[in-house]
Amino acid sequence: MKNFFYTLIAFLVLTNINAQIKKPVTWTSKVEKVSETEFNLVMNATIEEGWHVYSQFTPEDGPLPIVLEFKNQKGNYELVGKAKESPYKKQFNADFGVDEYYFEKKFTLIQKVKITNPKVGKILLNVDYQVCKDGCINDDKDFSFAIPVIESAAVVTPAVDTTKVAPTTTVDTTKTEVKAAIETAAKVAPKKEEKKGLWTIFFLAFLGGFAALLTPCVFPMIPMTVSFFTKQSKTPAQGKRNAIIYGISIIGIYVVLGLAVTGIFGADALNALSTNVWFNIIFFVLLVVFATSFLGAFEIMLPNSWANKVDRQADRGGIVGILFMALALAIVSFSCTGPIVGTLLVESASKGGIAPIIGMLGFSSALALPFMLFAMFPGWMHSLPKSGGWLNTVKVSLGFLELALAFKFLSNADLVLQLHYFERETFLAIWIAIFGAWAFYLFGKITLPHDSPITHISVGRLGLALTVLAFTIYMIPGLWGAPLKLISAFPPPETYSESPNGVGGSSNGTGEKLPEGAELGPHGIVVFTDYEEGMAYANKVKKPALLDFTGHACVNCRKMENNVWSEEKVLKILKNDVVVISLFADDKRPLPKEEQFVSKSTGAEIETIGDKWTDFMITKYNTNTQPLYVLVDNKGNNLNKVTPTTSYDPDVALYENWLKQGIVNFKK
Fold first, then answer.
1. Residues in domain Cytochrome C biogenesis protein transmembrane (predicted)?
2. What is the per-residue DSSP string for 68-128?
């Protein structure tokens, strides 16, 4: 009876622990046969109400994306492209300064593989992901896909022994079910955010087309082209008709270019590349080349033979001749439009789907519209400003903008590799120099190769110069730690810097040297990122320790830091009355081999620093969600009795009172 009593207590305790460990995502999987050697690995996820999982295409500097890691790929099979997924929702996250892509309720992942070892038998895959609601959980799922043995280059599809497959895995070769799964997931993910994103791309591309229109390669061609249509057409009506055909031809040429990019690379290929280090470095180099061209060092031109051949075709007249006239415009103006088109194509293609087509539609519409309108209403030509040095000013200004944008891509590569060569201060210093030089150029203090001599500057140029100068001055305080919210999406985060307290700041903002093992965290708070080091220091200074279970990509952790920790009363406590120990559950750095182990609580392999702190949360506090805050004494005992831990809650007064109560208990 006594043994039964203890067993019952143990069962109730374990039941309580398991109830605290959240698993908001459940998975099923199947294998779809595509050809004799190719298979689709299909993973269907169901998400609990209110939770969401982040897409594998989530931009850098945002929440953690889905990551697929194949365990036994070498010598056994090849991946055919990147895993396809259901449509995701898109929403701007002000705390990270980037768009976040996420799924709600359910989604599907499909990875196509080509078998190279006919006797591989199974494919082992680990899917790592982040799921968030009021807190965030870094979770993963192991899959074992049973693959039929391939005999003599012919696929044999025997009855599959499902006992050899992981419990959540079923084998199904019915293509219609996979298609139905994708369609179901597509219905779940609303399209409103995607439509909004496409309208944004169209608008920005339209502005790009308008900017290209105001360059020396394009603007002077407006009166020439309009004059051609008015003189060559037998009647005004014919001139207007030809002008409309000409404009539609321009639009068609650029839309076909967008279609070609989408068709060649696939709807999501460049989307995946946008998070690749080499892509960011290559695009940085391209933008520097484009900018250098705009600034007047050289011109990027297509071969003259192309233009000559197209000109000869344009002489044929009729609709075909008009089409070749439009093509001639695209070729002749390439030195000005090429860099803008290249930038727009990569930027829009990185969004995936039909974005490149929408981008080229917006760009070409802005480019074609003036040609059509002025040809239809020749009298408006008198209102056009005369060509002159201002056209080169527009071109040079675009060069400065492209040069500034280039360094965003270099910064992305540095952030991914965590090299710390291109930190926040370096980025801001370069931008200040670029925009400062642009302001001096607009004021006429700097001249470049193709500039005409000027005796005065126009009111419009003066206004732009003052705007650029004001923006330059605005960025300067960022070197000393100002948040610069207007450009928060561009520079590296404040924590990714030579000194999070700003250039010239002291170690901790008070002139005191930071304790060994500590660093500056949000708002200049001294934090430890190792439990043992933090607890040793707390014991030394006789202060309670605040265990902050957090994540680099934890959305609600950032919200707590930005909205609660930043409040003066809370910040004072965090800086003076407690020792903050921040333990990152998504830290992917591997533990030394001798420190790796198998969790006694979950049976999972603890291989990374993040695994270690997640296991600590589960073992000690029966939860796996971040943020989690625990106030402990110097022996690691909870100080708050009624509410031992707290998580995401933006109520500042509640958090402050919770901290104060723990400190009072510590002093008793």
1. 199-411
2. EEESS-TTTEEEEEEEEE---EEEEETTTTEEEEEEESEEEEEEEEEESSTT--EEEEEEE
The reported pLDDT for the residue numbered 11 is 40
User: Within a 10 A sphere around the Cβ of 479, how many other Cβ atoms?
Assistant: 19
**Rg from Cα positions in the chain:** 30
CA gap 593, 138 in Å, rounded: 22
Query: Could you give the CA distance from residue 600 to residue 200 in angstroms, rounded to a whole number?
Result: 51
CB 118 within 8 A of CB 111: no
> If we measure between CA atoms, which residue out of 425, 481, 571, 484 comes closest to residue 97?
484
If you write DSSP's letter for every residue of 434-460 in order, what string do you get?
HHHHHHHHHTTS---TTPPP-SS--HH
In angstroms, the CA 68 to CA 45 distance is 14
Please state the separation of Cα 535 from the chain's center in Å.
Answer: 36
Task: Dig out the tokens for 466 from the structure.
Answer: 């003052």
Instruction: Give the pLDDT of residue 64.
Output: 83
Question: Are 121 and 609 spatial neighbours (Cβ–Cβ below 8 Å)?
Answer: no
Pairing of strands 98-104, 52-54: antiparallel
**So what's the pLDDT on residue 313?**
62
* DSSP bridge partners of 139: 129
Contact assessment for residue 66 and residue 129, using Cβ atoms and an 8 Å cutoff: yes
Is residue 553 helix, strand or coil?
coil
Quick one: how far is CA 234 from the chain centroid? 55
Buried b (16+ CB within 10 A) or exposed e, 192-227: ebbeebbeebbebbbebbbbbbbbbbbbebbeebbe
CA distance 440 to 465: 8
Tokens of 576: 């003076």
Q: Is 110 helix (H, G, I), strand (E, B) or coil?
A: strand
Residue in 248, 39, 51, 58 with CA at minimum distance from that of residue 125: 39
pTM, to two decimals: 0.50
pLDDT at 19 (0 to 100): 41
**Identity of residue 167:** P
What angle, 0 to 180 degrees and rounded to 10, lies between the N-to-C axes of helices 318-332 and 236-265?
60
Report pLDDT for 639. Answer: 93
| C-alpha to C-alpha distance for 487 and 255, rounded to whole angstroms | 31
- Which of the 8 DSSP states describes residue 151? E
Dist. CA 425–CA 348, nearest whole Å: 29
| Closest by Cα among 225, 217, 253 to 363 | 253
Q: What angle do CA 70, 76, 78 make, to 5 degrees?
A: 65
Is the sign of the CA dihedral 170, 175, 176, 179 positive or negative? positive
> Which residues of the chain fall below pLDDT 70?
1-20, 61, 94-97, 151-197, 228-234, 261-276, 302, 304, 306-318, 346-353, 387-388, 416, 418, 489, 495, 499-512
DSSP label at 601? T
> Quick check: helix, strand or coil at residue 504?
coil
Q: 79 and 110 in contact (C-beta within 8 Å)? A: no
